[in-house]
Amino acid sequence: MGRPSQHDVDRLLDAAVRLAARSGPGSVTMAAVAREAGAPSGSVYHRFPSRAALLAALWLRTVDRFQEGFLAATHEEPPERAVMAAAGHVVAWSRANPLQARVLLYGPADFGESDWPRDARERLRTGNRRIEEALVALARRLGPGTPPEVERLVLATVDLPYATVRRHHQAGGAIPAHAEDLVARCAGLLLAQPVTGG
Asked: What ranges are recorded for DNA binding (predicted)?
């Protein structure tokens, strides 16, 4: 049986995460990842045929890890609890995974999405559809699945929590333990307010 590779995909992507979190997506090059991981350049090229493939793998692994818990939260019962759990997940996951959270404060376009391999772009679209479908389903469980209701869910479970995460990131500090509960309670309050206007 062959010896497991010392410089496996996860180790290289962990190095890429550190670079992106520290200095932004532009710092993630094949050579920089090799240096950060203490791996030969050939090890990076063996696993990622291009920088675009590396950036795609970095983004997709990160967003997949985040979305797993977010999707699980949207299925909690009752649906009002699901809204609060989803909002709280954004903050709790970001606090537990600060480097990966910094990656997600960018967007796929910052990681060269237009140049990604076709299968990577399709994976991104599939993941985004899963989130959209989960929020539409949650809106229906809460009441009429009208666009304003889905828009309110996006505000409560995505925009508000990420604004909190971004504020602490920009301040250079850790996300405090109370932030998760605060965001969850704000999401619940937002949900309780009637939508008015056209």
From this structure: 29-48
Expressed as residue numbers, the domain containing 42 is: 1-48
* C-alpha separations of 62 from 10, 190, 193 in Å: 11, 28, 33
pLDDT tens, residue by residue, 71-128: 999 999 999 999 999 999 999 999 999 999 999 999 999 999 999 999 999 999 999 9
Tell whether 57 and 42 lie within a shared domain. no
CA–CA dist 62, 68 (Å, integer): 10
Q: Give yes or no: residues 65 and 10 share one domain.
A: no
Token representation of residue 37: 């991981």
70 CA to centre of own chain = 9
Q: What is the pTM of this model?
A: 0.91
User: What is d(CA 158, CA 56) in angstroms, rounded to the nearest whole number?
Assistant: 22
- Verify that 103 and 31 share a domain, yes or no: no
